[in-house]
């Protein structure tokens, strides 16, 4: 009689990495009106009036301010749409993205 060897099946769970996150950064300029910056922050990033005002003032004082953190595609889309909103009104408003460390 042949010997039967059985091995238990090992279930391998795939390791799923969390997507890398990217910061959306508001860059200060001396030409875009503060009210317009607050309007863009509220519209594109869904910030409250108070949060948008704080972000705008921080960027004004320090030169830059992190607005929010998203996955890469969302961060780039929001930064582009917010920058384009400024261009449409003739302002040099600029948002950029960079990887979160």
TrEMBL record:
Pfam family, any one: ClpS
GO biological process: proteolysis
An example Gene Ontology molecular-function term: peptidase activity
Boundaries of every Adaptor protein ClpS core domain copy: 18-96
Keywords: Hydrolase, Protease
Keyword Ribosomal protein: no
Region (Disordered): 81-101
Cleaved signal peptide residues: none
Listed InterPro entries: ClpS, ClpS_core, Ribosomal_bL12_C/ClpS-like
Job description of the protein: Involved in the modulation of the specificity of the ClpAP-mediated ATP-dependent protein degradation.
Summary of subunit composition and partner proteins: Binds to the N-terminal domain of the chaperone ClpA.
Protein name, as recorded: ATP-dependent Clp protease adapter protein ClpS
Gene: clpS
């Amino acid at each position: 009689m042949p010997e039967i060897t059985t091995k238990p099946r090992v279930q391998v769970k795939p390791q799923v990495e969390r997507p890398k996150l990217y910061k959306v950064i508001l860059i200060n300029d001396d030409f875009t009106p503060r009210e317009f910056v607050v309007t863009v922050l509220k519209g594109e990033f869904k910030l409250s009036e108070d949060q948008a005002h704080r972000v705008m003032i921080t960027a004004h004082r320090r030169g830059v301010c992190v607005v929010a953190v998203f996955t890469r595609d969302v961060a780039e889309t929001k930064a582009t749409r917010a920058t384009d909103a400024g261009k449409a009104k003739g302002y040099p408003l600029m948002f950029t993205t960079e990887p979160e460390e």
